[in-house]
Amino acid sequence: MTVSRVDHDALTELFNIGLHKAAAALSELTGQRILVDLPRLWVCPIAETHARLRDLMEGELATVHQVFMGSMTGDAVLVLEYENASRLAALLTHGDVASDGRLDQSAREVLAEVGNVILSSCLSAFGDMLHVAVSFSVPRIHVESLEGLLRSLKVEKDEMHYTLLAATRFRLTEGEVGGYLLIAVGIASLELISKALAEHEP
Amino acid sequence: MSRDELLLSADGESLTVLHELAQVLELGVLTVDRSLTITSCNRWLAAAMPQARSSIVGQPLLTVFPELRGSAAEQAFHGALAGATTVWAHRFHRYLLPLPPRPTVSEGRFDRMQQSAHVMPLGRGGAIEGVVVIIQDVTERVTREEQLREALAQAEVASQAKSDFLAAMSHELRTPLGAIIGYMDLLESDMVGPVAPLQKQYLGRVKSAARHLIHIIEEILTFSRVEAGKEPIALEAVDGVALVQSVVELFEPQAATKRVGLHATLPSAPVMLFTDPTKLRQILINVIGNAMKFTDAGSVRVAMSCDAERVSFGITDTGPGISHDDVGRIFDPFTQLDQSLTRPKGGTGLGLPVSRKLAHLLGGDLLVHSVVGVGTTFTLWLPIVGDPTGALPTAPTGAQAIA
Question: Has domain A3-83+116-200 been given CATH number 3.40.1550.10?
Fold first, then answer.
């Protein structure tokens, strides 16, 4: 399996579908119009993920992990820089939580639900394409370093070999916040995704 | 994370452990089967419900909680039956199950227990057999958060009232002081009769004290205006070099009297800024004046530099310096540091806070770096912004020193 065999355009389309569903769900949840864009997408071996992420983000991170299993297994993570996480929580709640820049319990709950909506929407898009049911774990929110994040990308004892990394942008009436979706998968799952994407090509 | 954790196992033993664990953690646990009939409810949740536990188990969820019919909460249960886990953040939903608040915590603020929850699939051998709900009562936390928000709002109102009071009082004090100084001038000028030399000397001291008082009142007035967001800004094109030079010259007599060196290193060419010159002058006067005040030996150095984006003014003194602990408080209003050191120097303690607020108003900042026993450097930076009137900023070509 080589990374170059993954159809970037088809994968981008898949993420876009998932993010559109997520945006609709978030809009309904918060009562404000929310758009979630996908400006860039990378597929890279896990060994290169650290360097890629280091170029993209710095400092403490707030992450929402959701392990998924089924025909496709992996760890899906919403990754936000700490300041962006608190800003997003504040924007989504009109400043009710995290307006002081801290991720207190209420802000963490908000991010956990938002992460759950986004990750579930994207993984469901994958599941629909692959015609398989994917089970999700309860989302876990962490404040961690980049190194901590990468160390945690394991499902049971399975090492993850590739990451599908998508830069996202949450656009709300009162502002925008950038973040990342990281889906870590093993070789078999990437193979499955790649094959399904190829089959879906017109 | 294992496969079992993705789908909570529905065997009786696991559920008993979950119920007991949740009891210790003060969480509510409710399970329903595929037809949404309640199959179990832990003691914590049963205690929070008006009905007896025995009358709940075996009942349809929508009979026990008719409010759920057609709600997002009911959708979450159906979603779990389809394999989805739903996180139920209090901020978005307030509560999952309509339960009365526990009497000790809500202070009558809420008519429902405020909750965060998880709604998850429950199954055995990979098949989903029902739904498990884990509920956390967050009423107490939410009450505290609301009380804090209310207290903050009240504090903001009080702060506004204080600013308004200060502005009004300062105005009322300044007006009679103007009259005092005016009449002193009249008396001093001999226009209303001869004044003896000793009387003139005393009149001069009264006038000097009155002027000092007016300066302090102006400082308080500026501070309260800036705090209330009522300080107007008048932007215009100004040569920063000439402005600094004129401020430094103001302090030359004081430097000569104190026998303290006053040196300025400025760009040799004009540096055109589009800013409020009155406020820039006020900041520089405050900061250089502060440096002069606390420097009894050695020197005060003023340096100006700029690049394409910002202009910086550095004011370095050889005064006593500020301890690491005090540096954090130096821009707090009405704060003077080591009182034994500063009290003889006088002042309102507003000069530096006002200066920093003015720097923010101009889009820049005022920073401090200090070493006790060595001295202090204040750095004011301002952005170089485009001038709609067309006066172009001129890049510095070198530096000149004036002393």
Answer: yes
